[in-house]
Amino acid sequence: MRKLAKSRVRAAAATAVTVALSCTALAAMPAPAGAAAAADGLVVQYRTSASGATADQSEPWLKVRNNGTAAVQLSDVKVRYYFKADSASASYRFACSWAVKGCANITGTFGTLANPTATADRYLEIAFTPGAGTLAPGADTGDMQLRFHQSNWQPLGQSDDYSFGRDRATYGDWPRITAHVGGTTAWGEAPGGNDPDDPTDPTDPPTDPAEGPTLFDDFNYSGHSDPKIAANGWNVRANSGGPGVPGANWVPENVTFASQSGNSVMNLETSTAGTAASTEQTEILTRSMKFRNGTYAARVKFSDAPRSGPDGDRLVQTFFTINDLKAPMADDYAEYDFEYLPNGGWGEPANILYTTSWETYRPDPWEAVNQHSEARQSYAGWHDLVVTIDNNAITYYVDGQHFGTHGAAYLPERPMSINFNQWLIDLEGQSSTTPRSYDQQVDYVLHVKDQVLSPAQVGALVSGYRAAGTTFEDTVPAT
Questions:
Q1: CA distance 469 to 450
Q2: Which of 38, 284, 424, 449 is the most buried (most CB within 10 A)?
Q3: pLDDT digit string (tens) for 454-464?
Q4: Up-side HSE of residue 450: CA atoms within 13 Å toward CB?
């Protein structure tokens, strides 16, 4: 169900990535017959950081240089990278990881060549928005760290791709990638004489890796009673019940919002003085259960120690999706959790982060059917949490790194809500009656329906929303 809607292209601001780049360019290759000489106009330089014959994604990193005598408007320039499709039905997705000109000013579309060859039947066409500006004589675009992958994230073969250069570890002139200005070839040679004005068949929607229905919330609210919270589909919990300490209160007033580093941040405060009556827990959740397959992401700050008072409470800090258990062991239940226990609990003596995928459970007597991954270490501080759900698996990421993958047996049968909460497992971890409170903060939440995005794509999409000044969007249809 990794489908894409053919709708608008969102501007995505550049996502910073740390890359070691050599400053030594490869010697220029002679231009093949029919190619424009480097001294007469545009030159495309290429390198790749994904040099394997097969890879999860292809990474054509490019620079366009103006070796001519007049300035060139980049919005008039198109660059084509040619490759052989992995199957006749394969579809591809483009992403810009980082670019000197800004990823928001770079687009990527795919097309089918009119005259397929043994090494190319598709191409990725890179274009520029007016915001990319001009190239003065002697100037180049700087790095454009681009990539593309199969839409189902299956490995792709590169060894038979016309434009792929396995040994290109540093930038050098590369005539197997073409540049075109106004439909005229200015650099390089297309495979098999496929000129840029030949008829082509677009195969994939343009550029943006997240064109499906989307929920994004930057949590830009004035307080728990801000009417925009309900209008945007959220409920700040006030009703009693589990999870957590029996008899504890769920207190909406303890969900607050403040500016931090230029962004609005939501804070969930949970406090206790060692008794059920004094225990105040917090939760915010979507009113609608309309979220199922796709990508879920949030930036969350966990805390190991209380804001004040004695430490040691068995606390749970979370980001999760869930639907209702209709009956004990009902097989259409679903829940997917990030749960951080700063002081242990559930038999663990110290910090532990769980990701858990649930098939079902029975509350009494307790029986659970789930699969989990865990890491026993401190996660105090800000973390980027991503979970993707497709028709094959549930995959969790923390700070861009793979954390765990759970099998198809745990896939959701029904839609879910999106939730954040902070609560106490019990009062046995700390017996003091001195008041203490703990904070869990949330920077944003994102869901893209029916699409599997990488953590880098999530970051680019969030940067795009913020660059555009968008604090909330919900285009996910009700079920």
A1: 25
A2: 424
A3: 888 888 889 88
A4: 12
Encode the chain in three state secondary structure.
CCCCCCCCCCCCCCCCCCCCCCCCCCCCCCCCCCCCCHHHCEEEEEEECCCCCEECCECEEEEEEECCCCCEEHHHEEEEEEECCCCCCCCEEEEEEEECCCHHHEEEEEEECCCCCCCCCEEEEEEECHHHCEECCCCECCCEEEEEEECCCCCEECCCCCCCCCCCCCCEECCCEEEEECCEEEECCCHHHCCCCCCCEECCCCCCCCCCCEEEECCCCCCCCCHHHHHCCEEECCCCCCCCCCCCEECHHHEEEEEECCEEEEEEEEEECCCCCCCEEEEEEECCCCECCEEEEEEEEECCCCCECCCCCCEEEEEEEECCCCCCCCCCCCEEEEEEECCCECCECCCEEEEEEEEEEEECCEEEEEEEEEECCCCCEEEEEEEEECCCCEEEEECCEEEEEECHHHCCCCCEEEEEEEEECCCCCCCCCCCEEEEEEEEEEEEEECCCCCHHHHHHHHHHHHHCCCCEEECCCCC
Identify the bridge partners of residue 144 per DSSP, sorted by sequence position.
62, 99
For residue 34, give both structure tokens: 């029919």
Cβ atoms of residues 128 and 106 within 8 Å: yes
CA pair distance 161, 163, nearest whole angstrom: 6
Q: Torsion over CA of 231, 232, 236 and 239, rounded to 10 degrees?
A: 60
- Go through the chain and tell me how many residues it has: 479
Q: How many CB atoms lie within 10 A of CB 197?
A: 11
Give the residue from 423, 250, 418, 414 showing the smallest Cα distance to 339.
423
β-sheet with 177-181: strand ranges across? 184-187, 177-181, 77-83, 122-128, 106-112, 201-202
Q: What is the CA radius of gyration of the chain?
A: 26
Distance of CA 377 to the CA centre of its chain: 24
73-129 tens-digit pLDDT:
999 999 999 999 998 888 888 988 889 998 878 989 888 888 889 999 999 999 998
Q: Which two tokens stand for residue 50?
A: 């994904």
User: Hey, what are 131's tokens?
Assistant: 């915001």
> What pTM, to 2 d.p., does this model score?
0.61
Q: How far apart (Å, rounded) are the C-alpha atoms in residues 175 and 308? A: 64
Pair of tokens at residue 42: 């545009």
> Could you give the CA distance from residue 216 to residue 334 in angstroms, rounded to a whole number?
22
Residue found under tokens 């793979």 = 402
In the structure, what pLDDT confidence band is assigned to residue 196 with cuts at 50, 70 and 90? Answer: low
